[in-house]
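For practice. Any example?
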Amino acid sequence: MTAVRKFWPLLTGIYHYDKSISTRNIGTGTIIEAPILAYLIETTQGRILYDVGCDYRKIDDPVLCDQYYGALSFPPPAMPPDHRLPARLGALGLDPRDIDLVFLGHLHFDHAGGLHDFTHADIHVHAAERAAAAEPGARGYFTDDFSAAYRWRLQHHDYDLAPGVTAIETPGHTAGHMSMLIELPHGAPILLCGDAADLTENLEHEIAPGLCYRDDETLALASIRALKSRACDCGAVLWPNHDIDFFRAHDCFPEHLA
């Protein structure tokens, strides 16, 4: 029996970038709008937060913004105060300290930047991801996002965080990327792809993300196929991670899915 009681997708920001960042070698010159998402899972054993968005301090401060975002090929995301996780949680009557476990699908800046609000929580990430983020020339990481003495719980392989909440290895976009299967009390399970599939197009046409670990799409394509197979086997709905149309069709905040 699942321990999941409630599930919320949380919009933490919006950015605009060249579509080829999401669909490898496809869409160059087309600018798309993309949500930056976190997901809150309330279980009988505590509250789990999948991803924590960007570090809004790096966006608010013009000097820091130029330092961190100036070299990127797209502008910094829009992250208004009411989109930040403390505000999102506050709208639900919660505080960051009400989060027991933070699960990071990977350590890129738009997924791990908000860790500073969760210094009290256990932080789960794949061990290969921690190692790869420290490699010279690794792309997409702001290393000070995760350099503090957090309560790291390094993981390997698939594993259960709670009954009905399963972490799934999906490497390729990054070395230690992980997705998550969530069994709701009612209805079909949800399979959060994370950045293994930014867009519905990645899934439908089996297109790798634009950025792949060591510029090799082999693992990324294998992970997309594995997600599709897993969803088929258990009747889950696949949730792409940066698809604005999919998000708008499924956004229920502040209401929850159950």
Notes: Residues 218-234 form the longest helix (17 residues). The chain has one domain: 4-250.
